[in-house]
């Protein structure tokens, strides 16, 4: 069994990006600028936005964090998005999800200029991704493809079962694994809460991508020998004996499943750090596009 080490690969990617940014600086070029809007102060969002800002500093990007109170109205947020859309110094920005209930998430994601949508959530980018991948691929699916590629995981003709059909992971992942090319050319089953006989379907999978958010949902007896396991689930479990007062766990019962799998991503240290690294890659792409237009 081989660990798909997201922490190691994300650091390699950040080192590669840092070298590119240093060259831009030497040539006196503008360096990439990533902004994030955080509405409210949800613990997990603060952690993730924090690591995004720290990663920007590590690779030499400019970064801007816009904090807005959890009482922010939809109109106030839409106005802020319009401001960032127009701000030529900002190459890409994200609106950290989830948003408070008074704000319509779909409306917000549609308001982001697709040209700055480094999350790849805008329908325009989703459509292009499905066509020819010529644009921002959502960071988590992009990170999974990168891991499969770096570890040379065979996906051609394999049966991939995606568990969970979220807009930001499950649905794009099912399209990307079924596309022409590698990693891809896989036969994909997208499962969800209405899927019948889900355990029977999972038992046939060569590759399982679990993006459910249900701790230890995937048990060893559910998968076949040598399956490739990608754990996207990241759930915080309160535990006072832990330093941070919680520990995080994935959808996969890692200890037992790893005894049967051929490849497996750990949580933490797997898909999570890759999400950050690929967001930086998308921001670099945005900068290169803006520079070539000048
Ligand atoms: N507009 C938007 N874009 C996102 O990409 C986005 C989002 N909203 N909302 C939430 C999800 C989740 N997400 C993660 C990023 C990093 C880790 C990560 O670095 N996890 C570490 C552990 C971090 C910890 O200690 O909790 C790991 O898995 O090793 C996890 C999850 C990005 N998301």
TrEMBL record:
Tell me the Pfam families matching this sequence: THF_DHG_CYH, THF_DHG_CYH_C
**Which GO biological process categories is it annotated with?**
L-histidine biosynthetic process; methionine biosynthetic process; purine nucleotide biosynthetic process; tetrahydrofolate interconversion
Q: Which InterPro entries match?
A: Aminoacid_DH-like_N_sf, NAD(P)-bd_dom_sf, THF_DH/CycHdrlase, THF_DH/CycHdrlase_cat_dom, THF_DH/CycHdrlase_CS, THF_DH/CycHdrlase_NAD-bd_dom
Reaction catalyzed: (6R)-5,10-methylene-5,6,7,8-tetrahydrofolate + NADP(+) = (6R)-5,10-methenyltetrahydrofolate + NADPH; (6R)-5,10-methenyltetrahydrofolate + H2O = (6R)-10-formyltetrahydrofolate + H(+)
**Binding positions for NADP(+) per the UniProt entry:** 164-166, 234
What are the annotated GO cellular component locations? cytosol
Tell me where in this chain the Tetrahydrofolate dehydrogenase/cyclohydrolase catalytic domain is found. 4-119
Name one molecular function that GO assigns to this entry. Answer: methylenetetrahydrofolate dehydrogenase (NADP+) activity
Query: EC number(s) per UniProt?
Result: 1.5.1.5, 3.5.4.9
The free-text function statement in the UniProt record for this protein reads: Catalyzes the oxidation of 5,10-methylenetetrahydrofolate to 5,10-methenyltetrahydrofolate and then the hydrolysis of 5,10-methenyltetrahydrofolate to 10-formyltetrahydrofolate.
Quaternary structure, from the entry: Homodimer.
- Identify its protein family: Belongs to the tetrahydrofolate dehydrogenase/cyclohydrolase family.
What name appears for this protein in its UniProt entry?
Bifunctional protein FolD
Write down the species.
Cellulophaga algicola (strain DSM 14237 / IC166 / ACAM 630)
Q: What is the lineage of its organism?
A: Bacteria, Pseudomonadati, Bacteroidota, Flavobacteriia, Flavobacteriales
